[in-house]
Amino acid sequence: MQAKIVLIPGDGVGPEVVQAARAVLDAVAKKGGHRFEFESCLMGGIAIDETGEALPKATLDAALSADAVLLGAVGGPKWDDPKAKTRPEMGLLAIRRGLGLYANLRPVRGYKELIASSPLKPERIEGVDLLVVRELTGGLYFGEKYRKDTPKGRLVVDTLEYHDFEIERIVRLSFEIARGRKKKLTSVDKANVLESSRLWREVTTTVAKDFSDVALEHQLVDSCAMRLVTAPGSFDVIVTENMFGDILSDEAAVLTGSLGMLPSASLGQGKLGLYEPIHGSAPDIAGKGIANPLGTILSAALLLRHSLGLESEAASVERAVETALARGARTRDLAADKPISTAGMGEAVLAALEP
Known about the structure:
Elements: E1 2-10, H1 14-32, E2 35-40, H2 45-51, H3 57-64, E3 68-73, H4 88-98, E4 103-109, H5 122-125, E5 129-135, E6 145-150, E7 153-158, H6 164-179, E8 184-189, H7 195-207, E9 215-220, H8 221-230, E10 237-240, H9 242-251, E11 265-267, E12 273-275, H10 294-306, H11 311-326, H12 342-352
Parallel strand pairs: 1-2, 1-3, 3-12, 5-10, 8-9, 8-10
Antiparallel strand pairs: 4-5, 4-11, 6-7, 11-12
């Protein structure tokens, strides 16, 4: 297979973890007789510094012509001024919109090798294998925002908007995914308070009629947050709106022992997808070679699976990560004693790749 992969290292630890993931992709290509062409592009804070834009047109054009995009992370204190007209995160929202990506898949696994790294009781983590499906195009992040002065003081407004079709397509995709897993879907909302959540629940209930083989449950977001840490094994696929999904999937990182372990895939109607770890740019450790690259390497596995259709290669990368952990490889976030470097963890995964 021949494929073009756009790399967006971004800011902070992004370049370090992307470099480790690229090495794994290169090894996969060599072993499988594939040809991967890579192109590195700017986005985020570094793009603002060099071009004045969080997402330069050249980067979006390259991504649109690619088979897949692998992203590191964007942002950092240097660009955190809330009054700034252009911020790094605007590039992330813009590229998702520009590529037509509406579904963010965030798998969460409880690795037995990392049970000691989680603050939760071992019996709560063992065997956990869930998937959070987060809607990407609507909600508070994209609704109208403004401030104004009123007789009572300054007023700020963030608008939470959803069209029914946006809800339907993400819910339908989630049902299809659940059908191929344990046939259980949990739809998370705040229907006791929010009108948008009431529509979400109505549309989900209607779509469920086409998936009679999948068990559907509705859950309020606050009780879901509690259940994620008290009974995570009770979940299979969780589907929810943009902000709820952002928060819940970060909370679920506690199940793996570190935010650095979690990958994600942002998908649309076609094969083109954007893949990234869910952690941020971690500017406090940038350049020190201690960041955990496994979330990015596992994101590369999702890239192989969803955009390139290379299921066996994707599974081999996931097994290599598990093997590396079983052999004792740990970055600083996973172990207080004798941690290895970012590059060292990448090399541990490469050594575990099956011949």
